[in-house]
Structure formats: C-alpha cells, structure tokens
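Structure ticket #2291
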Amino acid sequence: MDGRKKPILKIFFIVFAFLILVYAFGVIYFSKYMYPNTYVNNVDMSFSSISLASEKVKIEDIEIIDRDGKTYKLSPEKLNFKAEYTETMDIEQNSFLWPLEIFSAPDYENKLNKTIDSKQLKNWINNSELLKNTVEPRDAEIKKNEKGYYIEKEVMGNKLDVDKLYNSIETAYMNSTNQIVLEDEYINPTVFAKDLEVRKEHLSNLFNLNLAIKLHDGKEVLIDNLEQFIDGNTFEIQREKVQSYVTNLKSEYDNINITRKFKTSYGTEVEVPPGNFGTQINLEKTTDAIFSAISNGNGGTVDLIYTTTAINNGEIGNTYVEISIENQNMWFYKDGKLIVETPVVTGKPKRYSTPKGVWNVWIKETDRYLRGNNADGSKYKSWVNYWMQIDGTGVGIHDASWRSSFGGSIYSYGGSHGCINTPFKNAKMIYDNIEKGTPVIVY
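Resolution: structure written out below.
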C-alpha cells in the first residue's frame, strides 16, 4: 500500500470512531433529556429531564414587593394551593433519531389545573405585615397663612386595597408568576399637588388684590375673601357668586322699603311705615361693576350703583323733620340740635290724611301756587312762600297765610288736603336751614 494513504485512512477511522461515540452519547443522553428548543406549556425545557414533564408540579413561592421595596414571601403550598397536570405527559422523542429530530423544536402542552384556598389566602392577607403600620393616603390641599396660599402635598401612604391584593395574588399564582410588585393595589390620594397649581395661582392673585366698595356717603368697605367668587372646578370668576354677594349687600344696606323704629321727641318709640326715604342698590349694575373689577384684576374701589339714594346711606341720623299727626306738632333737628318746634295742621282724616312714613324733602321752592281739587269738585289755588315737597303725590310742608291758628284739633274738621300747614315764621326757618334729601318722619 502506498505509504501516503495510511495517514489519511487513519484519520478517517479516528473521525468515524468519534462520530460513533457522539451518536452513542446522544442516544443515551436524549433517552433521558429533552431536545433543545423543546417547550412544555410555553416554558423552555431545553435539556431538561424527560421525567419532569410527568413529575408533580413544583409550586414556587410568590415574592411580593411593596412600595418601599420591602419584600414579603407567600408560600402557596402552606396556604393549601393546588396545581396538578390534567394528564400524564408523553414526550414523543426517539433518541436513536436524535441527529434528525434535534432541530424539530417540539412544543408540548399539558394543562395545569390550579386552585387556591380563598379562606386561607384572606386570612394570610389580613394577618400579613403588609397591612400593619398603615399610613392613610391624604389628598393635596390648598392652605392659607398670613403670607398667602400654598399647597400642602399629598401623602401617598401605604394603605392597600385588600380586594385588589387578593386578586393580584390569585392572578399571579394562576399565571405561574412568582413576583408581584405592588402599585395598583394601593389606595392612593385622589387630589395631587400638580392638580392644584392653577387654582392656587388664581387664589394667590386674588389674595394680593385689594378691592373695596364705596357706599353712597363715601364710606368704603373692603371686600373680604375675593377667592369666594371662584368656581371650584373651572377656577373662573363666577358672576352668580358675585351676584349672591351683592344680594347680601342689599339685605344689609337697602332700607327704602322697611318699617323703622323711631324714638319720638316725647321719648316714646313708634314704628313708622316705609316712605320714599332710603337707599336701594341696583343688583345687576353693581354685580357687573364688581365682576368686571375682579375679572380684570383691578384693585382699588368700586362705587356701588344705586337705584335709589339717600343722605346718610338712608339712615335717619340726627338731622330730620318729625311730625306727630296725633299731637299736630312738628320738630326740625339739625345735627342733633332743635331748630324749630311748631304746631301744624295736617290733612283732614280719611279724605285727605297726611301719609305716614319716612319721607324726604326732594323739592324746595319759593313763591309758588298750589293747585288741586276740593272735595266738592271745585278747584283751589293757594299761594305759598315756602314749599318743601316730601312725597310723589304733592304732599309737602309749607306756610299757610290763610290760617290764623295751628295745632289742636283743627285738622279733624278743617284739615289740609294732606300737606303740613306751618306758621310763616317757622316755615321760613325750616326752609332756610334744611337741605334736599333730609328725612321727614310722619307718624
């Protein structure tokens, strides 16, 4: 034989012998172990023992990690959880054909039948360290101090929703998941600091805004708590809330249609019905004015807009005319000082009764005729030197040159057409010292 062929032949036999050994090893190995890329129930079982497919299912512990990173172990076996294959697994693997089948990537399925013990799981949860040292969640809040508004951040806490925790453990076990990172299982705050930033900005703007209202007499009243006008959801200024505020102002300052208690010159107290004296804030126009000032961020003062105005904001004060119909007497006080006290003749009862009420001098004239109708239908025309009208029907205080006496019971049979007839001298004294708008109390 050619000496050059002997080494080649020797190498061939060595390789062949090696392949026989590899094949034999594969036959023995794959008779006990699964091929690479073999999956059982979607789990990679490459090179795992064939006997594992039929062995009792191993139940792994479940690791639970809380919000702070702390780990808790739950043993399903100790809680009487069950996991069994529904049938015996038969791995169809011919080890003698392993060189051909090794690339086949078989996929087997043997369904697991899993059950939990609800009672024991609930008991474990209720006694778990997870539910101890609980910190309640707390919503973020807007708070106020002397410097203004600030946000107190939310507290996440560590309180768990027991039902959600139960469901998470059950789901993890059924899906063969061995780790649960708690997050959705917590009971969280419902309001967070970031949710309040816009509202806090609105409130801060109003906190730094000083706005006052000016009453008819010039008195200014600061509006407290401008943030009361903000809508809690949209953070916009609400006209309805401003209007509610103005309505409250009206209940405090409107006084044109009220019955008043009045202390007479005799020292007694009487109730006097409404007249035309008093103030009345215009609801719509005043609401618009305040709403506009707040919306525009304008500080300063807003003048109240009135439907009806009166001196001294509609309060009687210490300058007024007092008329007692019963006593047929009239007083005029100015700044608390008695200027005039005089007998008078008022309207004839029933037919021409002088109207009771709190009125005001809204017309002052000299040298004029008074005209009207008598009870019999005839007309009258009377000259007066001083005329001070107090209501809208033509009733006023004036001199009466046609009378020689005043007071007493004259009014009961010879009374006026409703006016307050006054001696010339006293009518002049009142006229010279009284201002338009002065209240006139008739009782």
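Closing remark: Residues 246 and 312 are 20 Å apart (CA to CA).
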